[in-house]
Predict the structure.
Amino acid sequence: MPERDSISSTSLLNFEAWRALLRTICGRYNPEGIEHNAFIGWVRPMNVCGLAAVDIGWNAHRVERTHRDIRLDGAEHYYALFQVSGKSAMTQNDQAVQLAAGDIALVDAARPVTYFRNDNSAQWLSVRLPRRSLVSHLGFEPQGGSCRHSGTPAGRLLFSLVHDADTDNGLSCASADSYMQLAVYDLVGALFAPSDPRPITRPAGKLFARICGVIKDGFSDPDFGPVEAAAEAGISLRYLQKLFTEHGSTCSEFIYSLRLDAAARLLRRRALVGTGQPLSEIAYACGFRDYTHFARKFRHRFGNPPGAHARHGQSAADGTVRAGTIESALSAHDVQPPAA
């Protein structure tokens, strides 16, 4: 990422100008720990794969976003916050994290947050992630205040993607932005997927992981169900049902969850790239033979019909069962379903 000194086109701003410009992009933030007449900062608007972003810095000791700021803004989005240079710290949701160059934090704009600048070279880049679009694509609502340190493959890829977007001098193809946004969402999901602390015995966990892999391979077949999953895994239907009960779900619910997750992703892609794919075709591709049944299940899960979801990319984060809930329990104990 570029160092601050290389951004010659960015003007330094005083206290009021910095707050006013940042408010138009990110909402209300309040620098603290410095006299107003001594404050300097910069705000450089950017575009990362069609997502609003900002290169930002300041010389205040801390910057806060309060409950009052959130009420006034009505913000419904996240930020992927990249520590470009220097060191800083952040607190949100009772979590305190230290950030060094190359680290990435996930910030929930609907929750109070405080940033602390730890040295004079601190510089950040923030990419705005619409909440509904992100949750719809991931199938879970990530926790703000989390940090992932540099060095992970997903982190390096995401950092590189943002870096390239900032240095391509407008050469990127706007028609590819919708696809690139999906890549951003996928990398954010890889970095900030939740974990489930519930214990899983290792032998049973490995078997359950294999069953999940079988179901992930077969859920798009309308004739696939718990009986077929048990037969393919080589166990009795009763034992299969017992394993899912231990994970707080049923096999049928897991199958429908995978089908609905897949449908939501296809509807999201349909809305982003304007393919005009028939909704009935999407339903059938995801394992639903009957469109009416699909529409009823979809509305129950997401709170709106497939057509509205396709038009607006809307989704809810309160589905009763999610495939990710079971998969996160597996990943928390290093037990992974086999690759499809």
Summary: The chain has 13 helices and eleven strands.
